[in-house]
Amino acid sequence: MHSEHLQNVRPSWVAFGWFVSACVTALAVFVLIRFGLVESNGDAPGGWMALAFFVGFFVGGWFTGGRTGAAPILHGVGIGLFSVIVWLAANLLLRGFSGASWSALSPTLTAGLLLLQMAAAAIGARIGSREARAETAAVR
């Protein structure tokens, strides 16, 4: 059965998967700060922050894929794209309340981070979905 159809995507699970991803990413960054691999101001030598993003969004995708069992790739891509919605909402709220704005990322870095988030979440969702199907088949 091929489940990659938009009708199988659950927006509530996409949003919750993004929330799990953000929490795990924050935890990974705290661990990197604790071990001195990343400075508390965000300066990181090498790819440590990229690794934190990958781990966080992989776990969020894995969780979502395991819970939904359908359309894992679309759920993973949705989790990555949900970051754009959250960024837009946060920027609008930040400007509305304080008049301040965030410093801008370069377009290349922004596109790379979004692609990393989508790829990690899609890989995690695919693995989570396969594990859930294997467990269901073992029970029968």
Helix-strand makeup class: mainly alpha
Largest sheet: none
Give the C-alpha Rg.
17 Å
How far is the N terminus from the C terminus? 17 Å
| SSE sequence, one letter per element | HHHH
The fraction of residues in strands falls at under 5%
- In round numbers, the mean pLDDT is 85
Low-pLDDT residue spans? none
Shape estimate: globular
Q: What is the number of beta strands? A: 0
- The residue fraction in helices comes out at over 70%
**Alpha plus pi helix count:** 4
Polypeptide structure, described:
Helix content is 75%, strand content 0%. With 140 residues, the chain is mainly alpha-helical. The model has no long low-confidence stretch (mean pLDDT 85). The longest helix is centred in the C-terminal third of the chain and has 33 residues.
How do you describe this structure in short?
It contains 4 helices and no strands.
In terms of topology, how is this protein built?
Blueprint: H1 11-34, H2 48-68, H3 72-98, H4 107-139
Descriptive terms for the model:
4 helices, 0% strand, 140 residues, globular
